[in-house]
Amino acid sequence: MSDDNKLIKAIKDKGKTMEAEMSFFDHLEALRWHLIRASIAIVFFTILAFCFYDFVFDKVIMGPMDPQFFTYRMLCKLGDYLHRPGFCIDKIPGKIINTEMAGQFTLQINSALIIGITLGFPYLLWEIWRFVKPALHEKERKSASGFVFYASMLFVLGILFGYYVVTPESISFLAGYQVSKIIENTFTIDSYLSSVATLTLATGIVFELPIIVYVLSSLGVLTAKFMKSGRRYAVVAILVVAAVITPTPDILTMTVVAIPLFLLYEVGIVVAGVVEKRKLKKEELAAL
């Protein structure tokens, strides 16, 4: 090969490399703007929660500490209906205090930020979808077109379940649990906020199980057959997760939490089966 041809080949190869590098950095730039827009949405909701903090704190964050909370009232009605007065929770023992000079100010900022992230999560999913969408084929776009809706719906359902079921049951148990009557339960506001946020957000994330199954099935990592054969192990794992989410020894509470997780696992099996059928059909059409 002559020197001129070598030079031309080297220039072409360098051009291809530069084009690939530019494409990579273009993708990074696009991702950066998607994340910036999602961050702006989260900041907006955070400021909104900060402005309406009286309602956010008194009615939302401190709700599970109020004996008139919706869950406690429903449990009292259920106890009356079943003639089981033990179901009724009409008092939440314990006292919440602040032990730091700037504690209440940082509390307002942290709780507003948690509310902002929770409310902005669906928009974050939308921006992620907008980033991934151009890389998909038309059929893939159609099959995944409901990703944002279903992921947001499951997250909201998980948040509501965690806030109205898991959190009040856990708070009422932990606030009233005593090793000895000599020890008085006095909690810091940071500890309380951390417990409420962790229990609520963790349940919201756990409810994303069908979406995770869909992604793994699409990548060929997970199959419906594998999930069916591993159902017995999944039962154990779900019980462990339910025990972690609900730090109470109450079997009824663990059962109430475990049942939706079982249902989500079964939904995941159906989702994996649907993805496999679509793949098989696509392969058959490609073979024709």
TrEMBL record:
Q: Which InterPro entries match?
A: TatC
Q: Does the keyword Transit peptide apply?
A: no
One of its Pfam families is TatC
Where, by residue number, does the polypeptide cross the bilayer? 35-56, 105-126, 147-166, 196-221, 233-249, 255-275
Q: Where would you find this protein in the cell?
A: Cell membrane; Membrane
Keyword Lyase set for record: no
Keywords from the UniProt entry: Cell membrane, Membrane, Protein transport, Translocation, Transmembrane, Transmembrane helix, Transport
Q: What is its main location?
A: membrane
Record membrane topology = Multi-pass membrane protein
Q: Which family does it belong to?
A: Belongs to the TatC family.
Q: What does this protein do?
A: Part of the twin-arginine translocation (Tat) system that transports large folded proteins containing a characteristic twin-arginine motif in their signal peptide across membranes.
Q: How does it assemble?
A: Forms a complex with TatA.
Report the protein name in the record.
Sec-independent protein translocase protein TatC
